[in-house]
Amino acid sequence: MPLPLTASAVVTHAKIVGSLLALMWVLELVDQVLLRHRLDRFGIVPRTQIGLRGIVFAPLLHGTWQHLIANTIPFAVLGWLTLLHGVTEFTIATAVIWLVNGVGVWLLAAPRTLHIGASGIVFGYFGFLLSRSYFEQDLLSAGIAIVVALLYGPLIWGILPSRRRGISWQGHLFGLVGGILTARYLPELKQWFATFQG
């Protein structure tokens, strides 16, 4: 069940999304000012042992300020829309998308490439919010899906193969897949999460 959209809930949502974004911005500031982009090496390098650490760290890292800025607003909007169904669903969706995106990129992206950035998570929220209305068939999910489609429908083209430097279409694709899988198996994931908590 979604949390009532009270002032307290809105503040909670803002703290959650804001904290994740603040972490990304602080890391980018430290990386650019103090470390001269050395943190970027913690991204995903497909099919290498050292690249496995990127599954955890890559969504928090960005190559440039422009890269981070481009991800900030869609992350905030789609993250908040995901939170409308509650913190538990947001936590589950974020965790599954993060994992599927990272593992998919590590397994199947081109060798000797480096993948960083939150766009995989953005595409995951996008896929989750659109497909959730299909699997759940409730009015709130349908309304959110319509808003998402109107605001960010063109994002879907980002999953197509691209040779543009700095664009991880594989990250976009596997983020989207992670979002759809979360929506499909959400009841089972929530049950597992409740068991894990208990």
Shape: globular
The total number of structural domains is 1
**Which structural category fits the helices and strands?**
mainly alpha
Major β-sheet annotation: none
Instruction: Report the order of strands and helices.
Output: HHHHHHHH
Question: Helix content range of the residues, please?
Answer: 55-70%
How would you sum up this structure, described in words?
It is a single chain. The protein has 198 residues and is an all-alpha fold. It has one domain: Up-down Bundle (Rhomboid-like fold), CATH 1.20.1540.10. Helix content is 67%, strand content 0%. The protein is built from eight helices and no strands. The chain is globular.
In a few lines, what is going on in this structure?
By secondary structure, this protein is mainly α.
